[in-house]
Amino acid sequence: MNTQSLKDTIRRELPEIMRTDPDLRAYILDLTRREYAGRAATDDRFYDLLAELRRDREEGTRKWDEYTEEQNRKWDEQNRKWDEQNRKWDEQNRKWDAHQAEQREEFKRIHEEIMAQAQRHDRSIGALGSRWGLQSEKAFRDALAGILEKNFGVQVL
C-alpha cells in the first residue's frame, strides 16, 4: 500500500471510526487541539464579536440620531430665516401698496388741477378769440371798404 492509497482509505473510513470509537476520537482531537481553538475560546470570540457589532450599531445609531438632530436644527433655523424673510417681504409689500395708493391719489389730484387749469385756459382763449374775432372782422370790413372806395370809387355804408 502506498501513501496515496493510505490517505484515500483514511478519508473514506475516518468519519465512521470517529463516530463509533470514542477513544480514537479523543486521541485524534488531542493531536489536533493545537490547530484550532477550543469551544470556550471560540464562544468567547464569538460573543466578543457580537458585543463589538452591538457597540458599533449603537454608536452608528447615536451618530445617526445626532446627525438627524443637527439636520432638524438646521432646517428649523432655515425655516425661521425664511419666515423672517417672508415677514420682511410682506412689510415691504404693504409699504409698496400704501405708496402706490398715495401716488395714485397724488396723480389724481394733479390731474384734476391740470384739467381745471386747462378749462380756465380754454375759457380765456375762447374769450380772447371772441374779442379778436370781432376786432378782426371790423378790421377786415374797414380794409375791404377802403379798397372798394379807392379802386372803384364807391362809397361803402
Task: Note down, in words, how this protein is organized.
It contains 3 helices and no strands. The chain has helices spanning 3-20, 22-32, 39-152. It has one domain (37-148). With 157 residues, the protein is mainly alpha-helical. It is 91% helix and 0% strand. It is rod-shaped, with a radius of gyration of 60 Å. The N and C termini lie far apart (175 Å). The relative contact order is 0.02.
Short note summarizing the structure:
The protein has helices at residues 3-20, 22-32, 39-152. It is an all-alpha fold.
How large is the radius of gyration? 60 Å
Domain module tally: 1
Quaternary structure state of the chains depicted: single chain
- Helix fraction bin: over 70%
Characterize the largest beta sheet: strand count, sense, and whether it forms a barrel: none
* Annotation field: number of helices: 3
Q: Write down the secondary-structure element order.
A: HHH
Strand content: under 5%
- Chain-averaged pLDDT: 89
Helix/strand structural class: mainly alpha
Low-confidence segments, given as residue ranges, are none
Shape category = rod-shaped
Count of strand segments: 0
Measure the end-to-end span.
175 Å
